[in-house]
Write a structure and sequence with these properties.
292 residues; Rossmann fold; 2 domains; metal ion binding; metal-binding; cobalt; Sirohydro_Cobaltochel/CbiX
Length: 292
């Protein structure tokens, strides 16, 4: 038997924080890719510390629903899972290339735990960002005449924080689908506050590389970009700002296709998922109309 465990941050303050994790777990559960699908959280129940005890399977694939490699994926999650012999050097990563490492856990030594890199650095996340642009505009062919801003938190304390943003912006730029592609940040230059300064395109799609909608994506970014003076009053999609139409997509992690990235991570670590990748892609292929 094989199990999938999706681990995420969660929040004691924001009840919506865990919603994407549960949604993607349900999607994967529905396609019968694994005998068991479990979720675990740092700030909610069930906790990461206890989740392995709830699993019966002897092969367990743990996928972190995080954007970048860093403190949580390298320290908190391995510690809470009690991974025996964990060493971040086992990933042999440059901040983008963490794949997986197979270990045991002190609590459940009879199980093999395949600990995977975060979803945010997987190449499949590029497609989710593009899908997010399709969803917010209601156009499966969106690209020509549009600019695309991929937005991250950014921090000088962790250089890996910006790497995932730059990585996906570069990959999308190389495809040539959008007229302009720019990586922007909340806490470092270039800042999302000045989004219209970085684009000539009349239409700009803004996709935050965040797992869940919360304080930053629902309050800070819309106000910083000038979509609204008060997030509680809402804003238009698209919203007119400095002569541009801003199509603000909200957190990329809420896109249904994220389940594909979770499956990709587990498959890369050796999980037998059959044709479920194709099934998930088909189920999430329909592009909703803007405003739905």
């Amino acid at each position: 038997m094989q199990a999938l465990v999706i681990v995420a941050h969660g929040s004691h303050l924001n009840p919506d924080s865990s919603a994407p994790t549960y949604d993607h777990a349900d999607t994967i559960r529905d396609v019968d890719a694994f005998d068991e699908v479990r979720t675990g959280f740092w700030k909610e129940e069930p906790s990461i510390r206890e989740v392995l005890r709830t699993v019966e399977s002897d092969e367990v694939y743990v996928v972190p629903l995080f954007v970048s490699e860093g403190y949580f994926t390298e320290q908190v999650i391995p510690r809470e899972l009690r991974l025996d012999g964990w060493n971040v050097s086992d990933w042999e990563s440059d901040g983008l290339s963490a794949s997986h490492v197979t270990l045991t856990a002190d609590d459940v030594p009879e199980k093999r735990v395949h600990y995977c890199g975060p979803v945010g650095t997987h190449e499949a996340m590029t497609d989710v960002i593009v899908r997010r642009a399709e969803s917010v505009t209601g156009d499966p062919n969106v690209g020509g005449g549009f600019g695309l801003a991929v937005v991250g938190h950014g921090t000088e304390r962790n250089e890996n924080s910006a790497k995932a943003i730059e990585y996906h912006a570069d990959r999308i730029r190389e495809k040539g689908r959008f007229d302009e592609v720019q990586a922007l940040y909340m806490d470092e230059e270039p800042e999302v506050d000045d989004v219209t300064d970085f684009f000539e395109s009349d239409d700009i799609v803004v996709v935050p590389l965040f797992i869940a909608d919360g304080f930053h994506t629902q309050e800070d970014i819309p106000e910083d970009m000038g979509l609204t003076d008060d997030y509680r009053m809402g804003y238009d999609v698209p919203a007119a700002v400095d002569g541009h139409d801003i199509w603000y997509a909200g957190a990329v992690g809420t896109e249904g296709l994220m389940a594909d990235v979770v499956l990709e991570r587990a498959a890369d670590a050796g999980a037998d998922i059959g044709d479920t990748l194709e099934v998930v892609r088909e189920r999430t292929r329909k592009t909703p109309q803007a405003g739905d």
